[in-house]
């Protein structure tokens, strides 16, 4: 049900790089493919320096439905990914946790989502201890 194209609408994170470069945010889209009925291949597309970049990731299924593991290089780069809430026809809220650091992303099937969906996202952001001052909204053009 998560397969297909998604647009990054908003993100909450204490990431210092994001805070310093938030004025340079570009429209971002991702394509989700379910490989074996469980694991996900994520292709994220964004523009950087007028070039479209693609980042590919492989989310491995956890034993709990809706939880995935994103492995990087080395033991310290494991990221737990949780589908916090979703309506596969309209929105997807993902929580990413690496160590004690957490971020929340809101994706929509379109680049604009309803106020009700935005409220759900903002509630999730507060529930994980983040706030409006570390919430960023992505442009709808590009």
Automatic annotation (TrEMBL):
It comes from the Eukaryota. GO terms for molecular function: complement binding. InterPro entries: C8G, Calycin, Lipocln_cytosolic_FA-bd_dom. Residues 3-138 form the Lipocalin/cytosolic fatty-acid binding domain. SUPFAM superfamilies: Lipocalins. This is CO8G protein. One of its GO terms (cellular component) is extracellular exosome. GO terms for biological process: complement activation.
